[in-house]
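This part of the workshop introduces the protein records we will be handling. A record pairs a protein's sequence with a compact description of its fold. As an example, a complete record with its sequence and its structure tokens follows.

_____
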Amino acid sequence: MVESIEKIVKFVSPSDLQDRKGKYFLYLVTSKNLFEKFIGSNNPFTISFVDKDGVVLLTMGVRKDPVISEGMVIGKAFGKTAVGIALEKAETSEVKGHKHSDPIFNEWSCAASPVLNKKGNLAGIISVSAISKDYPKFALEITSIIASAVQNEVNLKDLLQETEFSRRYIEIITEGSKDGVIVLDKNANVLYINSIGASILRVNKDKVVSKNVTEIVDFTPVILNVFKTRKGYVDREFIIESPSRGTLHFIKTAVVLRDVDGNFAGVVDFFREIERVRKFVTSYIGAEAHFTFEDIIGKDLKIKESIRLAKLASHSNSSVLLTGETGTGKEMFAQAIHFESLRSSEPFVALNCGAIPRDLAESEFFGYEPGAFTDADKNGRPGKFELANGGTLFLDEVEELPIALQVKLLRVLEDKVITRVGGTKSLKVDVRIISTSNKKLESLVESGAFRGDLFYRLNVIQIPIPPLRERKDDILMLVPHFIGKFNKEFGKNVSGYDASFIESLLNYDFPGNVRELQNIVERAVNIADSEVLAQEHISHLILESIKEEKPLNSTFEELKKDYIEKILSECNYNISFAAKEIGISRPTLYKLIKLYNINKLN
């Protein structure tokens, strides 16, 4: 049924909805308070306020009503409905089940009563709707009572009258808001400011009431433009210079208020500090570190040294340069460093320098102002430095940066200030840089392809990540890890591998490193028709690339024995610790020790 409704329903734009809510501000505040008295925990119906044009401005109910939602226009396309009749005739109406003219509403029943303004003209509709089996017996009476109460209360006091009555209702809906909220009358005098707004503006909320908005801040309030244009806006970004506080960065929404006759009555200004918005957005889009040092698998001395250096780097704010071939896990190291650092609660923003179109590179890094270039977002956009402010900016393949951008990046690292493309205002940023390169930057510096001064800025702590071919013993740990990962992901039950499978891997050079090994195991688990992976599950392209004349340095059994001896030695021959490290039970380890004739003396 919902799909059928979607074919006939129309919605007003978000800005139009905001304007309408501003116009009906007092109606909605009053209705909300009354709705809450009728909506109990066990009442499965929806109560709504619909304006005189048929636009739904407020809905409340325990059960989500697919028929009525905010912003929806209830028009002639709905056929015979209680709301439609009430809008047309300005009288109470009720339509149940099959009495609806459109069969898609036959499961529903609804009642509606008109709300009149002080001149006796239709202002809006109060409606109650529910699935017919849950429809309340006294629905018509409920709508009539609420409509009468809303009508009497709104007509008694409107928003222009500064009374305890209006302030109390404004406070009810704004004190719980995460935004700062300030309500201004038609002369820009403060009628009300909530606690968060007072905190952001650093004012006493009780002492600013009745003062003009220009008197409570030391900068020109941008909200004054709304008093000139009489048009609101939604989620606009503003950078404001304050003599006492420096640069202020806000996301703001302005709602124009009108009295019951449609005359301009004032403005409600919603504002939030940009840093709070940035943290929410970066968290929402996944701009945070997920990997820790515990996720980096390996016992080889080279990888352990890389981990040791990375852990030391995590306690510093200095720039880190991770070097190594593609697929060695450089981003995993970067995330682990961030995760262990004092910036762990702040954003981790990644940017692949090799994937950015050259003509857009600067705007990706530093953002841009509205109209900065053709096809630019009309509201502008923050760059990666702004999104990462307070946290870590991860620059992958930093060697791909154009020389012109290298100069600007160096300046930002030195001054800790950015300017958006097309803008003139400077923004302070606090960002730690972790970069990667799979090429020798020193050679690029010598050839002039990379600036030496930027290289020295990025290369404060260099951490080399070894290729997989230089730590092949770790394959014996990585393969079981990936098998477990893909068993869970694909619902498979692969228990292990045979000698042909592991010997093929040990004899392969892995130009794609750990990432390639993961892909090989993923493919094998996908196509395996048994519980044991074998050589036949490896791509023939890989098998063909292994030179037949290249002998294994040792047999699989010898490698297995060496690996067990290595773990036992590292665990000081503590069987419990060693078994846990290898990922097997103590009895199994004892059997292997006996099988391979391993002892401490050897």
About this structure: The chain has five domains: 2-156, 164-273, 285-464, 468-545, 556-595. The radius of gyration is 33 Å. The chain is about 40% helix and 20% strand. The chain has a mean pLDDT of 85.
